[in-house]
Write a structure and sequence with these properties.
single chain, 63% helix
Length: 101
């Protein structure tokens, strides 16, 4: 028997998946991807502790915002969402004119 004859016995084509298993695989992939993104963003948020208050102010955050975002989000939650919301809120109110009297 030659190697070309052995190669014909291999099943190189993947069997078609059922719709239900494809949906399940997609849902699992989305969950894993979301958890990985949250972990990666949590790791990226930790160096914000090393910045001084003036640097944090330059990016629109305070030290309290960083502490709050990391404390309020669970291990697999994304703290960057809370940090972005705090920065947007501070930017909206930072240069607002006081109400006319």
């Amino acid at each position: 028997m030659s190697t070309t004859e052995c190669g014909t016995d291999l099943k190189l084509v993947k069997a078609p998946a059922t719709a239900q298993s494809a949906i399940f695989q997609t849902a699992v992939f989305v969950r894993i991807k979301s958890a990985w993104r949250a972990i990666r963003n949590r790791i990226a948020a930790h160096p914000l502790f090393e910045l001084d208050d003036h640097m944090l102010d330059d990016i629109g955050l305070s030290r309290r915002d960083v502490v709050t975002a990391l404390d309020r989000s669970a291990a697999l939650d994304d703290p960057s969402l809370l940090l972005a919301r705090a920065a947007r809120e501070r930017a909206r109110t930072r240069f607002a004119r006081p109400p006319a009297r």
